[in-house]
UniProtKB/TrEMBL annotation:
InterPro entries: Plexin_repeat, Semap_dom, Semap_dom_sf, Semaphorin, WD40/YVTN_repeat-like_dom_sf. The chain crosses the membrane at residues 616-643. Residues 1-33 form the signal peptide. It holds the Pfam family PSI. One of its GO terms (biological process) is neural crest cell migration. It comes from Alosa alosa (allis shad). It comes from the Eukaryota. Residues 366-392 are annotated as: Disordered. Residues 40-526 form the Sema domain. The keyword Transmembrane helix applies. This is Sema domain-containing protein. Keywords: Disulfide bond, Glycoprotein, Membrane, Signal, Transmembrane, Transmembrane helix. GO terms for molecular function: chemorepellent activity; semaphorin receptor binding.
Length: 656
């Protein structure tokens, strides 16, 4: 009798235990999912909303120009030389004097260069809105001359202009291989050693990508990459070029030829050519580079399985990181991948070490890519500069042995990738569906000029200010200081809401950052120290290298010559300062006190649900938990019912 009533009890207890365990696990869904490949996104210490950023001055181009009124500015690039900022756009270049640009952005000079080939452009079947002169190249040729190239209604041309007056000097030059045919094609250009190095598309159909040297005169022949050879270039998107040592370096993204079995996978590359390259012999590589080498840039998160940020978006010039020459770049995930962005740095000597490493080859079209055996590499080493290093015995590249030239023509790709500083990103952002697009870097921020600050712009018109931790041995990582909503529809919205940031230019001397969109350029202060007023805790807790607490009792921006009479505490314990700042900040910043954090700094708002990326393993785990939980809950109810029925049946039998 009693045993009959107690039979369901073990199942009931087990079911209840399992139910409670699953209930606990359900409240900890991350434990059931595989670890996310991304670290948790940093929350900004301060958020600058439209109510403040909309007050920043902007420039929209010539309001008297009908095309500008109808189509907008059509920004192409910015160039800062000393105290002048040059803004290249459609049909115009504007020169802004930075010493006088504080309240408004007013050009001191401007040049207008309209195309005379508009009718021919239309005959070729192009849209009338494309048949303008988009200024795609704007670089200093020397201390007095600017070199500019424009699409010229799909007939590229180049001119020289005086820097101070923007007056044309000399005749117009052919722009083919120096400038793309249309505004959306990528390109880079730089003068080095009197030669103009360019990377762009050379034809109307954009089928021939080239890295090109010209304008050098006698002794520097015109050279280019091998035509239509995917081992050299395959659908590249050129981003930056720099001169460093004996070489000119080109940074770009392209379809990876070594991963064709996986579809069109984009890799970031660095390529280099010798400045004294004279081309090959009449038999091999005549009028082509003999020193062209390229390698992959590895920007990834380490772990059991590396997560790669393969698509380069922006790159700095050579700067100092940990007292070593380096470059910093913004990288994003593949287009068909989950959204993610990262900032990685690369030492120049690591790039050199990679170029001195093994070459990569594919022996057959079906085989995998493998390192070239050392005994198969000819001498002097392919990629060497004539008169230097392994090729010191050769006065010119034209006298290089044919086997060396044949090797470099077939194997320009290096086997190993260039590792990033610390072998991990300086900054990662993954919770937003908007990727980072542009970057500006200050490696000497703060009163002691010992801090590195990154300004990172995104597709949604925001600029993130990051205090970067560049020391691989540092105990703390980077800090997201500010999230600034820069895009201003009243100034920038002409033909729809295009919030993507296209350019950043730092003007540290005048404490400003110029943020360029397609239709406008906005001037943003590097800091907002005055917002903290007389609140010491807020000022120091902002951790902003550009802000200091003065002994006079106020928060101020760092200015040149700061030596004493201030306090700054970037990594200290800010809770030791009294929390009496809310009323001060409410008056100073005109913000709701409920939005202020305990430090008196406006915290990050709750992120839009649409901006979150949920890891698929978490979703699968939640579905499985829900399914199992439902099954066990049903079993628990049935068990209780059966137990209750059996108990009643036993009582009835005993009473009878």
């Amino acid at each position: 009798m009693s045993s009959s009533a107690a039979t369901p009890r073990p199942l009931q207890v087990a079911t209840l235990s399992t139910f409670l365990l699953l209930l606990v696990l359900c409240h900890q869904p991350l434990a059931l999912a595989s670890p996310s490949p991304f670290p948790k996104d940093l929350a900004p210490l301060n958020v600058v909303g439209p109510e403040q950023s909309y007050l920043y001055p902007g420039f929209q181009g010539l309001t008297s120009d009908n095309n500008t009124v109808r189509l907008g500015l059509d920004f192409q690039r910015m160039l800062r030389i000393n105290h002048m900022l040059y803004i290249a756009a459609r049909d115009h270049v504007f020169a802004v004097n930075l010493t006088t640009t504080t309240e408004q952005i007013v050009p001191q000079q401007q040049l207008t260069w309209r195309s005379k080939d508009v009718k021919m452009c239309a005959v070729r079947g192009r849209n009338s809105d494309e048949c303008y002169n988009y200024i795609k190249v704007l670089v200093p040729r020397n201390d007095e001359t600017l070199f500019a190239c424009g699409t010229n209604a799909f007939n590229p041309g180049c001119r020289n202009y005086k820097m101070d007056t923007l007056e044309q000097v000399g005749e117009e030059l052919v722009g083919q291989a120096r400038c793309p045919f249309e505004s959306h094609q990528s390109n880079v250009g730089i003068f080095a050693g009197g030669n103009f190095y360019s990377a762009t598309m050379t034809d109307f159909l954009a089928s021939d990508a080239v890295i090109y040297r010209s304008l050098g005169g006698e002794g520097s022949p015109v050279l280019r990459t091998v035509k239509y050879d995917s081992k050299w270039l395959r659908e590249p998107r050129f981003l930056h070029a720099i001169e460093y040592g004996n070489y000119v370096y080109f940074f770009f993204s392209e379809i990876a030829v070594e991963y064709t079995s996986l579809g069109k996978v984009v890799f970031s590359r660095v390529a280099r050519v010798c400045k004294n390259d004279g081309g090959g012999s009449p038999r091999v590589l005549d009028r082509y580079w003999t020193s062209f080498l390229k390698a992959r840039l590895n920007c990834s998160l380490p772990g059991d399985s590396f997560f790669y940020f393969d698509v380069m978006q922006s790159l700095s010039n050579v700067l100092q990181i940990n007292q070593r020459p380096a470059v910093i770049g913004v990288f994003t995930t593949q287009m068909n991948s989950i959204p993610g962005s990262a900032v990685c740095a690369f030492y120049m000597d690591d790039i050199e070490r990679t170029f001195n490493g093994k070459f990569k080859e594919q022996k057959t079209s079906e085989s995998a890519w493998t390192p070239v055996a050392e005994e198969q590499v000819p001498k002097p080493r392919p990629g060497s500069c004539a008169g230097d290093g392994p090729a010191a015995a050769y006065t010119s590249s034209t006298s290089f042995p044919d086997d060396m030239l044949t090797f470099i023509k077939s194997y320009p790709l290096m086997d190993e990738a260039v590792p990033s500083v610390g072998e991990r990103p300086l900054f990662v952002r993954s919770a937003s569906r908007y990727k980072l697009t542009q970057m500006a870097v200050d490696t000497s921020a703060g009163p002691y000029k010992n801090r590195t600050v990154l300004f990172l712009a995104s597709e949604d018109g925001h600029v993130l200010k990051v205090l970067a931790s560049t020391d691989p041995n540092a105990t703390s990582g980077s800090t997201l200081l500010e999230d600034i909503d820069v895009y201003n529809p009243s100034k920038c919205d002409v033909q729809g809401d295009d919030r993507r940031v296209l350019g950043l230019e730092l003007d540290k001397e005048h404490h400003a950052l110029f943020v360029a969109f397609s239709t406008c350029v906005i001037r943003v202060p590097l800091s907002r120290c005055r917002n903290y007023g007389t609140c010491k805790r807020s000022c120091l807790a902002s951790q902003d290298p550009y802000c200091v607490w003065l002994k006079t009792g106020s928060c101020a921006s760092v200015t040149p010559g700061f030596k004493a009479g201030f306090e700054q505490d970037i990594e200290g314990d800010h809770s030791k300062y009294p929390d009496t700042c809310h009323n001060v900040l409410a008056t100073t910043r005109n913000q709701n006190s409920a939005a202020d954090s305990a430090y008196g700094v406006k915290g990050a708002p709750e992120m839009d649900k649409a901006s979150h990326s949920v890891h698929y393993t978490l979703l699968i785990a939640c579905v499985l938990v829900a399914f199992v939980l439902g099954a066990f809950l049903s079993a628990f109810v049935v068990s209780c019912y059966c137990s209750h029925s059996a108990h009643r049946h036993g009582q009835q039998r005993s009473s009878s």
